[in-house]
Amino acid sequence: MKRNVKELISQMTLEEKAGMCSGLDFWHLKGVERLGIPSVMVSDGPHGLRKQEEEGDHLGINDSIKAVCFPPAVLSACSFDRDLMHEFGDAIGKEAQANDLSVVLGPAVNIKRSPLCGRNFEYYSEDPYLAGETAAAFINGIQEHHVGTSIKHFAANNQEYNRMSSSSNADERTLREIYFPAFETAVKKSQPYTFMCSYNRINGTFASENPWLLTDVLRNEWGFKGYVMSDWGAVNERVPGLIAGLELEMPSSGGVYDKEIVAAVKDGSLKESILDQAVERILNIVFEYTDHREEQEFTLEADHELAKKIAVESMVLLKNESILPLKETEKIAFIGEFARKPRFQGGGSSHINSFRVSSALDSISPAADVRYAKGFPADADIYDETLAQEAVDAAREADKVVIFAGLPDSFESEGYDRSHMRLPDCQNRLINQILSVQSEVIIVLHNGSPVEMPWLSSVKGVLEAYLGGQAVGEAVADILYGKSCPCGKLAETIPFKLSDNPSYLSFGEGENVTYQEGIFVGYRYYDTKEMPVAFPFGYGLSYTSFAYDHLQIDKSEITDHDTVTVSVDVTNTGHMEGKEIVQLYVSDLTCAARRPVRELKGYEKVSLLPGETKTVHFTLDYRSFAWYNETIGDWYAASGDYEILIGASSRDLMLTGKIHMTTQKILPLKVHMNTTLGELLADQRTAGYVEDFKQKLSQVFGMSSSGERKDGDVAISEAMNTAMIACMPLRNVVSYGFCSKEELLGMIEKMNGQ
Ligand code: BGC
User: Fold this and answer.
1) Which of 349, 350, 351, 414 to mutate to test the pocket of ligand 1 (most atoms within 8 A of CB)?
2) Pocket of ligand 1, candidates 25, 105, 122: which has the most ligand atoms within 8 Å of its Cβ, to mutate?
3) Is the pLDDT at 40 greater than 70, yes or no?
4) Helices 128-143 and 82-98 meet at what angle, rounded to 10?
5) Ligand 1 in contact with 44 (CB < 6 A)?
6) E strands, 447-487, where?
7) For residues 113 and 169, is the Cβ–Cβ distance under 8 A?
8) Is residue 367 classed as helix, strand or coil in its secondary structure?
9) Burial class for 415, CB neighbours closer than 10 Å (0-12, 13-18, 19+)
């Protein structure tokens, strides 16, 4: 049905229009019955439905309907699998249709700046490319059912401490290269129906009233067509917010801000056309949903199976010194309460009322020989002598031990950040005790963000299960016993210790958080610094092995408008069917700007039978090579060479090739009295103007025309001469008497006039 929304708006009163711009209650938008505008419901959250039918809250306190808790983003991102994320979205879309939900509040794509952020479990990655691709696939899956998504939290919401008032202070290049692209990709590849602006300020201005963010960048540059809603209670000043591009205030503020909107229209400080446009954007999405209601059949059972599949395809095997998979004939001890009571999701607004949860202990085959000892509690850091002794005894008697370790709920949650990166002390203590009686030890981790692993070199196996959703136990059991071949890879680096993290000295500040590490977030920092890490970005083991061969790049020379196709052959060289995540990184060799040593620009997951080979293809474009140049306010890849690297993680790069870029983008000249001679000599457009100054300065510094020191003094070398000239500001040529100030100003004008 084609609706005339503008016509409908023309029939609304001013009060009705203002009313459309805020919630009816915690979860509903208002309707206007006389005009046939329905009141629709929105609901959390990204990895399952948290539909509250009675009392609403945004902290996951009150009950919601029984639903399926799929793996939270921290785990699903490790699948590196667009098709799987699409299937996941498809299931959520069907569940939402069946439960009368018009918009699902997610996905959450904020970048993991520090392992300490309390909400990291809800976020995908430290890498914006991976986060963006993952989000777009998920959104497309949901929106194919005409149910909207609300990608969140836009933007730079990377800590929980003072999240409702603190200012995330970062330069524009950092925002554009690290904190924005996941949102940008989602708009360009999946056009989310709605955006949720974050609580925090960005460089001093609240996201909820930031015209640059909500209108210039989001709509005018990226082409967003839906509406923006506030995070719950994120409105600071309503009228400036509406003008900036915040269409919907959530939840209801009891009409307080609706009245301000009405008053502002009446006194002329708000154009009614801005209000009309906001209402139109909201109604377009409301009707997109209500005009496409689908009878949906889904069963919790089937979605539980999908939750298991996503968990299996995402868990990351970090270490395996010939200890896994386990055999049913082996005598195994499962230690730690997480074996019986897994931690599978985080706390806060994404908390799902799971209809069933499986533990590893419940999920092993009846034929497996497993003895369980609690060892330590899952929900607290309490060392108990008796429990510890039982666990040590069980470990001593077993062939192999699996310790189920992890973070208790209280260690990480929405609303606050972690204060350290350690496991509870009681767990590390017991792990060490067990290692003193047993060398065959595997650790399974249940955590929403990395933990330090002081025992890493002494254990033989580590499986990072993260927070696995409600089917976690089945997934862990299948991987441990080799029914499934592990195939997830890390969507973040695991550093050895917290102080290695680049944001260590500025994370968690109150009023103003300075993103002093700039673009060097995650592996962009660790890899550029060549810093040892526990496990690099993109890393993960398999029970089979893969070989990479035959890298092909279809062009060796490109310009701005070209695309490049890269292909590589991957072979399963082991004995088990398995999946490999092939990664493509680009390294800028031009030295035109300070950049990370390499950045992820492509990935593909490929399934291979033993002995099978498949060719994997990637397409790169200008943006794949570019960085955000603030001088031109655009993406820029300088002319020169770039390396293309293919491998199994950011630090396991097997094949490399080179490509030469010739860009047609010309950086504007901004020559002034303090521009250095070095910059001018390096630019073809200006080198000719200053060559003469260079020669004269060399003579001043006592060099012969052949570059040798005339008096034979080796302390002042040619290298020093060159360096001194390169950093000499233009103004100094006047004091050396090479030209008058007027002549120099005239020359500057000519250079800038080119
Ligand atoms: C969270 C959002 C969530 C909203 C509604 C807020 O506290 O930041 O992510 O969607 O509550 O529950």
Assistant:
1) 349
2) 105
3) yes
4) 40
5) yes
6) 461-464
7) no
8) coil
9) middle
